[in-house]
Amino acid sequence: MGSDLERSFVEQLQENQNLIHKICRLYTDSEDAHKDLFQEITIQLWKAFPQFRGDSKFTTWAYRVGLNTAITLYRKKSKTINTIEFNSTIHKVNQEEYNYEEEEHIKLLYQAVHQLNDIEKALVFMYLEDKDYGEIAETLGISEVNARVKMNRIKGKLKKILNP
């Protein structure tokens, strides 16, 4: 792959790595698993990047690849990730340290969200990222009406979990 492609990828990843960290936090419960998933999502993004045509925003595309990677990996019984050898591209991204010392109510929300199924987690994540229902629907491959209905049900579920 050409150096322009690599430069473009590293730039986009650098600007949007927080969304990948958020996906990792949603689907993992330890720092090691978080790092493994971050690396795996990065690898999947890099492998798919030559096909990225810019029909959608980079972030929408990255959400789709990241969430699909997380869901695919964590649907498996085993929580281990088989990584592949990866060239030096990943080392050109200055990875920001992720702050695990969040406020208590954020931790409680994440604990509640961890009890949801994979699709519900993805929907909540994008809702909390202020994505509109059109973008959520496009990313998850469901209708906008379905996204709204699911989100209302999820809000009810989360209220029951957080206020039993």
From TrEMBL:
Which terms does the record give in the GO molecular function aspect? DNA binding; sigma factor activity
Q: Which Pfam families match?
A: Sigma70_r2 (PF04542), Sigma70_r4_2 (PF08281)
Domain RNA polymerase sigma factor 70 region 4 type, residue spans = 108-158
**Which InterPro entries does this entry report, sorted A to Z?**
RNA_pol_sigma-70-like, RNA_pol_sigma-70_dom, RNA_pol_sigma70_r2, RNA_pol_sigma70_r4_t2, RNA_pol_sigma_r2, RNA_pol_sigma_r3/r4-like, WH-like_DNA-bd_sf
Protein's name in the database: RNA polymerase sigma70 factor
Task: Give the RNA polymerase sigma-70 region domain ranges.
Answer: 14-79
Q: Which GO terms describe its biological process?
A: DNA-templated transcription initiation
Q: Which NCBIfam families match?
A: sigma70-ECF (TIGR02937)
Alphabetically sorted, this entry's keywords are: Sigma factor, Transcription, Transcription regulation
Keyword Secreted assigned: no
Q: Which family does it belong to?
A: Belongs to the sigma-70 factor family. ECF subfamily.
